[in-house]
Design a protein that fits this description.
By secondary structure, the chain is α/β, with parallel strands linked by helices. The chain has 16 helices and 16 strands. The chain has an eight-stranded parallel barrel, surrounded by six helices. Strands 1-2 form a two-stranded antiparallel ribbon. Helix 1 links the parallel strand 6 and strand 7.
Length: about 375
């Protein structure tokens, strides 16, 4: 439904994850019967949750442990891990710096050149320990490092930018990455993102995407929405992009998963994204709180170190438990940030959804009071949902 902003501009109402709720149907099932398996490229995972390619979230150790637990972690090919042979003192400096000096320090640290030999080393370290080696780069980084990543044994390649499209205009002196050619030439599946519209999702799928990432600006450490004024709230963005996935499947018989990326903190957030149509989710700050995370209790966005226009910040998320507690439990907190898989399975049981496909079909209502209704004591005492 269009809304008139003024005489010369119409707008469409969009909804965020906090504004919706999931409605139980006629059936319930025991959570142990809920099947959460999904597939990206040729890789099947038990848990439809991916850890974001952020330097405070995923390093070699985290990637391996996530693989062992049934999930997936993505390493940033343009981050600290591939710029420094020993990233530990660099991560110590990032955690120790004051907030006023943070941006300049990040710009300094990320000015260190990326070393192809470290890309090879990190991928091989993950593989040698039995992990799935998923890696991420910007379009410019993909053109430089895609070949070395594939030849080093990477299993999945993510191309990520604030906004990515197949129709990109560049100065005459710059040759933009041809996404279709890149996907076709890579011997491994390539996920493309980020986007928020039906039309771009469809074009990315036609270009050969093995998955499409949805989300512009909702991340906990991202400031793109403030800096650029760009973005679409996640519930609407996911619903629009999954409509493109379904139409593409009807037309071609190829099913391309949609990954909701950013702005997800609790198990309930994950459940609502899948109910809006997502096949899986990518999250950062919840995993940055793991004892094993490289960020020392801090989390920062991929666009934070930009030398021209930083679009991210560093936030303190603390350390609340082990990665296993956060992902599969048992939960040590009551606010939905621990045992994310358990939350998904319990929600699916409550809604009567036996698998991800059925979860995508549950009824959704607009419910802006969902998180505040009846929670006056929790809010006043900063407990549970009132934290």
């Amino acid at each position: 439904m269009e809304i008139q902003l003024g005489r010369g501009k119409l707008a469409r109402r969009a909804y965020g994850i906090d504004e919706i709720a999931l409605v139980p149907g006629n059936r319930t099932l025991d959570p142990s019967l809920a099947d959460t398996k999904w597939k990206i490229g040729n890789i099947e995972r038990e848990i439809p949750i991916i850890a974001s390619a952020m330097d405070g979230v995923v390093d070699v150790k985290m990637a391996v442990r996530l693989s062992q637990l049934g999930a997936l972690g993505v390493i940033n090919l343009e981050g600290i891990q591939t710029r420094y042979a020993d990233p530990e003192p660099i991560l110590d400096r990032i955690a120790a710096v004051g907030k006023d000096e943070f941006v300049s320090l990040m710009q300094e640290l990320y000015a260190e050149p990326i070393k192809p030999e470290l890309i090879e080393k990190r991928i091989q370290e993950i593989k040698q320990q039995g992990g799935i080696a998923a890696v991420s780069a910007t379009p410019a980084g993909a053109s430089k490092y895609g070949e070395v990543a594939a030849s080093s044994g990477a299993d999945l390649f993510f191309i990520q930018a604030t906004v990515v499209s197949t129709d990109h205009l560049s100065p005459e002196s710059v040759t933009p990455l041809n996404l279709e050619e890149f996907c076709r030439s890579m011997p491994i599946p390539v996920a493309l993102g980020n986007c928020v519209t039906y039309e771009v999702t469809l074009e990315l799928m036609k270009a050969g995407a093995a998955a499409v990432l949805v989300g512009i600006g909702p991340g906990a450490a991202c400031t793109s929405r403030g800096v650029l004024g760009v973005g679409v709230p996640q519930a609407t963005a996911i619903a629009d992009c999954t409509a493109a996935r379904d139409d593409y499947y009807q037309e071609t018989g190829k099913y391309i998963p949609i990954i909701a990326d950013g702005g997800l903190i609790t198990g309930g957030d994950i459940c609502k994204c899948i109910a809006c149509g997502a096949d899986g989710v990518m999250i950062g700050s919840p995993f940055a709180r793991a004892a094993e995370a490289p960020g020392r209790g801090y989390h920062w966005g991929m666009a934070t170190p930009s030398p021209v226009l930083p679009r991210g910040t560093r936030i303190r998320v603390g350390t609340t438990g082990t990665l296993e507690q956060i992902l599969t439990g048992p939960a040590g907190l009551d606010d939905g940030t621990h045992n994310l898989l358990g939350a998904l399975k319990t929600s699916m049981g409550t809604l009567g959804a036996k698998n991800i496909k059925e979860m995508q079909q549950v009824e959704v209502v607009i419910a802006p009071s969902l998180l505040t209704e009846g929670k006056v004591y929790q809010k006043a005492q900063q407990l549970g949902m009132g934290k």
